[in-house]
Amino acid sequence: MLIAADPLAEAKQAFAESRYGEAERLALQAEQPPRLGAALYLVGLARFRAGRPAEALEAFDAAGRAEDAPARAPWSFNRGACLYKLERFAEAEQAFLEATADESLARIAWVNAGFAALDAGAPERAARWAERARPGASEQEAALVEELLSLVASEQGRGEDAEAAEDEAYRQGLAAFDAGRFEEARAFFLQAARRDPTSGRALLMAGASAYRMGEREEARVDITSALALLLEPRDRQTALDYLDRLSFGLRANGRGLWGSVEAGLGFDSNVFQVGVAARDVSGASSDVPTASAFVEAGLGFLAHLRLSDVVFLDLSYGGTQRAYTLSSAQDYSLQLHRATVAVEWEAPHRIRLGASTWGDAFFTGLSDFRGLQASVSGSAWLALDESERTSTRLDVSFTHKIGLGSEFSYLSGQRLDAMLSQELRFQALVMTAWYRYREDRIGTLVQAVSGETTDTTQEYVIPYAWAGHAAGASARLVLCARFDAGLDAEAEWRNYLSDSYLRVLAADGSVEEWGHRRREDFRFVLVPSVSARLSKHLRLSARYELLVNTSNVDTRLADSAGTCTAPDFVCHRYDYTNGNYQKHVLMLELGATW
Hints:
This protein is α+β, with helices and mostly antiparallel strands and 594 residues long. The chain is built from 14 helices and 18 strands.
């Protein structure tokens, strides 16, 4: 009859007789509504008495979520006991404070909160809870209050001695740091940190010393640990600034606003081949000069913002104008404007997730200045910083392009890029290897053939859409404090997506298509550069660019006998351009930043 009235009766009896394992088993058997909370609460008590505080805490938390949850104050008290055993002192203190709401538990809960505060490193708070427990305390409770106050006094005395020793070690560390003895300074700062584990300033300076020694991994560990401790606002900002320098991606840029202006002189051996956006429609003529000197000027602004400790934002604008001096090349002069917004989240485990969007506007010509192309792009990336020396990154981007004006309508379309890169870093050398797949699905240009002497009308049909694979590498080497050098190399295989041909319209209205050819190009780019820092704000740079393009489309290629015959006239004399060419660009540029 007793069991029927209370399903937990046997479990309670076993608990009262210290048979905790049996009490847990019986309580678990009764773990169902309407006594779910009571059963779980008894499970927690049995587990705690059996010396399993982590499992007991799980049972108490589950009991607290049940519809028949136990009374709040004793439940909090027992949770606090589990948390204290697990050395989660700050949480234990809060749980004991909640239990003070029950007058019958208040004094012992105040005392236990004091012990938790003391073990959490807050003796002043521990003393305050002891004084709250003193009024009305029983003899046993009063003894616990006195024991707590004695421990507080002892801890405060040790704290004063430790603080003096910590300050001395910290002062010695600062003296060594200022003298440039960073290894010695780090030893003193770590000594100070061991004497006061709650203060972050010594760990911050230990990390700063490691950074000056080039020990980036140790510096990152120290500074990250310092940020988890007590820091003055100015020290916290300093720690974040150091962490920026030790990071990669957008975070490495730090915070602030920058501006730049550049001006340069250069020489281009083959102006009509503009490289990135093919616009060579010069035909087979070889007597048109293709080399020209040029002047170039640029302006840029950049804002690096920290939105939080782990989210970073870049806002930028850049504009350049290149003007060719040769009169026949001036229409190929280019002006570019670009505005960009980029955001990156530094996720746990050295993972970075980012996204950006940007807009471009190209203009061409000088006296006949006009719009060439506008585009809007978006990209996303995932980067993994495996170590201080290596990072792997995957980028995917999409661009929508619009040709500005009817003469450039063939430049409208979309571009898709996917790129995988691996970066390797040394103290003075950074190298990157990458692979890219690109689809550039822009339009087709129809261009009339000039200088015709026959009774037919001829038009080149020139598709510009292509897909290709590219691989490349780059290296940046710091030669000394004032000089650095770079080298970029790229190889790309382009397969055009439709045939080019010559459309022939006869006087009788018939149309023929001659010289159908699916264009295939191989491109190689090599760009060495050097730069010298003339002052804090001035830099002088020299750069050489080599572009070599080989193609199966070229009016200069020889044709086998009998190939240039009806009906298809498949021969290179009907190609629309010289696809095998070289382009050399030399440039000297002076830049100022502030």
